Amino acid sequence: AMVRFTAQENTLDSGKRWGPIRNVYIQYASDPMVFFSPDLMIKQPEWLQGKRGPDVSPHLNWYPVVTFLKVAFDLPMAISVPAGYGHNYAPAHYIDAWVAVTDPQDWSEEKSKRLSDLIIPLTPL
Asked: CB atoms < 10 A from the CB of 3, how many?
C-alpha cells in the first residue's frame, strides 16, 4: 500500500508490504476538520456506524441536518482541545508515522519510546 491511515494508536503495521512511495495520514476520529462534509446533512457517515474511534462519544447519533450543524459548530473549537483530540495533533503521535515512512536503520521500539518521553513534556495541554 502506498497510503495508510493512523490515529492516536499506531495502526500502520497491517502486515502488508510498503511500496517504494510511502504516505501516512494521521487523523483523529474526533477531528471535525477531517470528517466535515455537506453529506452530513442527508447521509449518516461511516464514522458513526459500527465501531467508533476511541475519542467519539457513544452518545453521538446522526440526525439529518442536526449532525451537520453540530460538526460545523465544532470546527472553530477543534484546536482548543487537549493534545491528542480534535484537530490538536499530539507531536508524540507523529513518531510511528515518521518511522513507517522513513524506515530508519537500527530503529527500535525502545528508541520510539525514548523519543516519545522527550516530546510529551513539550506538548501543551
From this structure: 10
